[in-house]
Write a structure and sequence with these properties.
Elements lengths: L3 E10 L2 E11 L4 E5 L6 H8 L7 E6 L2 E2 L4 H7 L1 E3 L11 H11 L4 H15 L14 H12 L6 E5 L7 H16 L3 E5 L3 H5 L3 E6 L2 E6 L1 H5 L5 E6 L3 H9 L5 E7 L2 E6 L13 E2 L4 H13 L5
The protein binds adenosine-5'-triphosphate and magnesium ion (MG).
């Protein structure tokens, strides 16, 4: 049985469709990355999966529980770290953990055991008496994670857990996620960072409420047809304009950092002989550019 299964899950706000017919499955113990631009429906989807928001139509099961009918039971079973996670600044680390332990109705024995484990997992043992207000963003995030898994949930929903923290803290946070996954916890995580996405077992890409792809990072990279070429340039836009005026057969052309990326229809690269080009393997960023343009039918045909 998958840990999570959605069938045509839809959420409207008035006439606006925030999540449109999303269907997907997540395997037990895997890490599923949920990607998409701002406002594409990630948080709305996650809130439905946590039993916090009712779907307009469609259905979903998490750990075998119906997300609409069994939402109360679901809330107790899952772990959820919201985009604006809520810690109490004027309480210490350990007081925050005790507060969350109380919310999950842990016995005092369980509470003590799990708080000890969570302090170790998050590396916060030496800081347990510190006020949360005095912790850096990275430590706060690890504490928020610890609070959300005190009750040992088999599935964990993380909504942009690493936004606004430094790279070292991000890496430490991900080490914890891998550990949890190795121990069998299923993780669904939203992120804007492509390097984080690369390390997920599967990735779903949501755009304007539609799940436009869902697969392993390797398989997603295989969907780009033709040959992808990178040309270093100090002025990608100027080079792009000059390409548009030439009779070169390409499917797409777009700036990527200090480079121009050209997706050629075939492996015939003779037109590019005057440029310092390199044939490259697509990154996930290239995949998402391709997916969005295919979805909008903006590719040259
Ligand atoms: N309660 C609400 N009422 C009306 N519109 C809403 C509500 N909640 C979300 N929306 C709209 O639904 C769309 C999807 O929002 P959502 O928060 O799910 O996006 P997101 O992908 O999480 O974005 P971000 O990356 O910025 O967190 C947005 O256009 C948002 O304004
Ligand atoms: Mg969001």
């Amino acid at each position: 049985m998958p840990a999570l299964e959605l069938n045509n899950l839809t959420r409207r706000f008035g006439d606006f469709v925030a999540v449109n017919n999303v269907s997907l499955q997540i395997k037990q113990g895997s890490i599923y990355g949920f990607l998409g631009p701002n406002g594409s429906g990630k948080s709305t989807t996650i809130r439905m999966l946590c039993g916090l928001l009712e779907p307009t139509s469609g259905s979903g099961k998490v750990l075998g529980l119906d997300i609409a009918k069994d939402s109360e039971a679901l809330k107790q079973k899952i772990g959820y770290m919201s985009q604006k996670f809520s810690l109490y600044d004027d309480l210490s680390v350990i007081e925050n953990l005790r507060f969350y332990g109380g919310l999950y109705s842990l016995s005092s024995e369980q509470m003590q055991k799990r708080i000890g484990e969570m302090l170790m997992l998050s590396g916060l043992e030496k800081r347990q008496q510190e006020l949360v207000a005095n912790l850096s963003g990275g430590w706060k995030q690890r504490l928020a994670l610890a609070c959300s898994i005190l009750h040992n949930p088999p599935i964990l929903f993380l909504d942009e857990p690493t936004g606004g923290v430094d790279p070292v803290s991000r890496r430490m946070f991900w080490e914890i996620i891998y550990d949890l996954s190795l121990q069998g916890t299923t993780v669904m995580v939203t992120t804007h960072f492509m390097d984080e996405a690369e390390h997920c077992d599967e990735i779903g890409f949501i755009f304007e409420g539609n799940l436009i792809a869902s697969d392993t990072p390797d398989n997603l990279k295989k969907i780009i047809p033709g040959t992808l070429v990178e040309i270093p340039t100090s002025s990608p836009m100027e080079l792009l304009e000059s390409f548009e005026q030439q009779a070169i057969e390409y499917l797409d052309i777009y700036p990527s950092g200090a480079n121009l990326h050209v997706l050629l229809k075939s492996d015939n690269i003779s037109h590019l002989s005057g440029y310092a080009y390199e044939i490259i393997k697509p990154s996930l960023e290239d995949v998402f550019v391709y997916l969005v343009k295919s979805y909008r039918r903006e590719l040259v045909s």
